[in-house]
Amino acid sequence: MDKRSPKHLYTMKDLTQRQKEILEFIEHHEWRNGFWPSIREIQEKFEFKSTNAVMGHLRALEKKDVLERIPGQARTFRIHRPDDGDSTQLPKEAHEVVDIPIVGAIAAGYPDRVEGAGEIGRLQVDIGSAGFSSQRRSFALQVRGDSMVDAEIYDGDRVVIEPRDAHDGDIVAALIDGETTLKRYIKKAGEPPYLKAENKFYPELYPVTELCVQGVAKAVVRNL
Known about the structure:
- By secondary structure, this protein is an alpha+beta fold.
- The chain folds into two domains: 17-95, Arc Repressor Mutant, subunit A, CATH 1.10.10; 99-221, Umud Fragment, subunit A (Ribbon), CATH 2.10.109.10.
- Helices cover 19% and strands 29% of the residues.
- It has helices at 17-33, 39-46, 51-63, 127-130, and strands spanning 67-69, 77-81, 93-94, 97-107, 121-126, 139-144, 158-162, 171-176, 179-186, 194-196, 211-221.
- The strands form two sheets. It has an eight-stranded mixed beta sheet with strand order 5-4-6-7-11-8-9-10. It has a three-stranded antiparallel beta sheet with strand order 1-2-3.
- Mean pLDDT is 77; it is low at 1-10 and 83-94.
């Protein structure tokens, strides 16, 4: 990800002051974090009374060809980034940002019985930075615990999970003997798989009856 401050490459004269402020907030958030702010974060930043007001501004930016809606992705847009100094050219770069559900917490400690809470929030993620496919039904989980700190995954982080088969060394969300956890998946030839913490104070986990990988961790989202 480019660590330089974001450059404003748009023709801004047709935008309202509030639309400019929203666009600059989105760009700066994406530059610092690698992903978009959520609709609710935009609402809170500008003190709108509802998320409908946010969507109204985003739709207005879409009509002015600053944002483009991603087909098949509800409430999800990408930014048009034209070449410097030439607003007549086609977009040079469009970041594809997908809107995924945050479906609950996962233990990054000892396995935990996590009650299904359904969707508890939404997270917008730049799939280029996160490195996952928009074709799979990815989701995010809130991390609870410190067993993965040596992999730079901390308590309170949100981890983007892509549902797919795991390979040796992947960090996974897994169900082990009926309890869920976030650990590194270890599978050596001729040996049964097990789960490994990234914290020397936690033991390796070997299933008694069941080890089911629910998905592979593809990105970590952290509030600064």
